[in-house]
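Researcher: Before we compare anything, I want clean individual predictions. No alignment, no superposition, just each chain on its own. First chain goes here; please echo the sequence and then give the structure tokens.
Model: Echoing the first chain and its structure:
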Amino acid sequence: MSAACGSQAEAVTRGLGFDCHDVSPVVSVRFPWELANWTMPALELLVIGGAVLALVHAVRRHRAGDPTNLALWFASLVYLFVTEPPLYFPEWFGLDHIYGFIFAHNRFTVQFMDDRLPLYIVAFYPMFTQLVYEVVRSLGIFRRRGPLLGAVAVAFVCQVFYEVFDQIGPQLRWWAWNPANVIVNQPALGSVPMTSMLLFASVSMAAMTYLVVRLAGNGWLVLLAGVLTPLAMVVAGLPSSLFQGNTTAQAWVLGVELALVWVAGGWIVVSTPRPDEPASAFARFYPAVYLGVMAVFWLSAGSLVGGGLYALACFLGGGLVLYRVRSRSPAAV
């Protein structure tokens, strides 16, 4: 029996098809064909394989004289271990009375920490940060516009690539948000809390990338980026927190901030002249594979439910980004 399985966690996990009292405290392993649906092992293959490819690419970049990719790969894991445990076990950190139970992952092939942390989530952080950074780097934005505007472009690219995953996850039972938690999980767009859409899907990745670009080459100091990133999320969350209890006002504030991400980041991506040097093979192919597999997952859901229209806008935004990356000369390192 898990001490962290309260009544709300119990209700959410039973909705996913398992009992949070019946979990392994350290690690659990199950066969892929035992999972709730076929999309789950396919998602694991996409993400874990992407993390491995991202590491290979980062090592190649490091050997070519650029340590940023590899630094970002490891900094994202630091960020993972700073942020995920408080989300899963707020009672360990004295946050249960502030945030309460937020969400639960379904059971995947390999799971850690009372079945709260799937292996694919561990892999998702380095995979996704590398995907987004490499796309923006390959477009020449960091070199031409500098780290700050490069980070704004990262916020936009993160939003469009992450939300096609975030909006479909609850519909395919990859995880479930706790509907009883109105403090964190409201307001929401479709099935996704808007704070998650803004703070995790854009602000965190942009802030971490900015810090890594600034600190790259400073040895282990760069790992501080993963520790400091949550501070940027706190700052970006302040405007909506001023209207705590008024979900309509919070939705407007978060909506305006998300619109700024789209307008500012999209403008930087579109207006930056394409560089003469070729895009990397990772930037040319993996993001397209990722977006294509996500499209298959959406088609398998049968309809544009939940935040489907927003996800469609994100697919269009991701397609625009891929067009700018792929309408370049042949691949390089």
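Researcher: Okay. Second chain, same rules.
Model: Second chain and its structure:
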Amino acid sequence: MNEHKIKEPSIWLSLIPVVVLVALLFIAIRIFGANALSGGNQIILLTAAAVCCAITMLYCKTRWADIEKSIIDNIAGVSPAILILLIIGALSGTWMISGIVPTFIYYGIQIIHPSFYLVSTCIICSVVSVMIGSSWTTIATIGVALLGIGQVQGFSPGWIAGAIVSGAYFGDKISPLSDTTILASSVTDTPLFTHIRYMMITTIPSLIIALIIFTVAGFSYNVTATDKIVLYTTSLKQTFNISPWLLIIPAITFFMIVKKVPAIITLFSSAVMAGIAALIAQPHLLHAISGLEISGIASKFKGLLMIFYGSTSIEMGNAELNDLVSTGGMAGMMDTVWLIICAMVFGGVMMASGMLKRLTYSFIHLVKRTVSVVASTVGCGLFLTLTTADQYIAIVLNGKMFKDVYKKKGYESRLLSRTTEDAVTVISPLVPWNTCGMTQATILGVPTLTYLPYCFFNLISPIMSITVAALGYKIFKTKPNEDETITETGVAEPKATNTITSVQSNQE
């Protein structure tokens, strides 16, 4: 039998699908804006995958069977993430309608003090974002409210938006409910809670520095109005049965996370507990959501199912509060699921063609020590965030490009997942043409470049990631660097027999 030979793609040939992807994404985002996530970006990913597929089949002679297998393997690799995303959709609905999130907001919003407005804004957005796992929802709801309060009090829009974005993306980064957090851990094969715990090493110091800056800056302003705080707390109190007892469920959830209970079990259990809490504490809301005329077991059961799977809305007498308490349920996650699947198709074709491996080598030659590994990952993440204009695509590509490099260099996958989030998730809202940057600027009515200098948490995170790597803190290796080299094709070749040991990078 004749052996099927595949021709190695050149670096310039490998760049063609990426250029096509970037160019089409730029056009789509200009046309659709934030709505590009509802289908435009997905079609473009498939189009770029088709271009890559045509090149690799015609020029590199890659067989369709190999491409198809790579796509299937890629999609199979993120199937746990898709399941978690669907559960999170249910969790977001039950936590909101049961009164858990409104209780957090009710007590949290009252901590705003005239001298500590900026730091309080950052903290409130952090808490809300951790609870709901969405920076976009946090900014579009409580963020808009806090922006209005701050402007009345005399704060500049840049400072206010900077505090809001910093807090919202802190929560988006570490919340187990966040799709970007789940995606980063899934792409790099890192357990979700392992990923979150490891991110704390760089995330907490970055937030502390940002909070110190916001605290110092807050003393230079004079605050005179707090009428919206009263309006919001009153409306929440009138609509929901606010009770500190509801906070038992987040406490139990946190306990399960600490005990390293698998993410799917933890999140599903939390959603079920919140559903039971909704039946007990907010039966009137379940009846209203059901749409049935007669209140009874049927209306409550229908309303309960609806908050798990579908979109819900409650009339609060205020448009901003209506947005705050609205939920999407499991159905609200479908755009993200669709995007992830299409991204996996593109990644699968790039991997099967050998193009991803070829592009990876352009960064591999910089990798020698721990700090250069992390710095290269950060640099690539920033490059992808700027060029692909979408945080999901950047996370997927960055994770896929460096996954084998970290493995062959002996670094744990959690280092890659953390570095990817430090360089992609928090930087995406700072890029004017990125979907995140466009969305937040539109929602807040503050240009991206106006709030960019004040998003201290976002700006500090990539620097903190490199700094921690340079210090060698909590960075372990299981394989010595000198036992293998990376060839120009990105393949590791052993120099000698390896002995697996565990050493810290700062001992190199």
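Researcher: What stands out in the second chain?
Model: The beta strands are 476-477, 484-486, 492-494, 503-504. Additionally, DSSP finds 24 helices and four strands in the chain.
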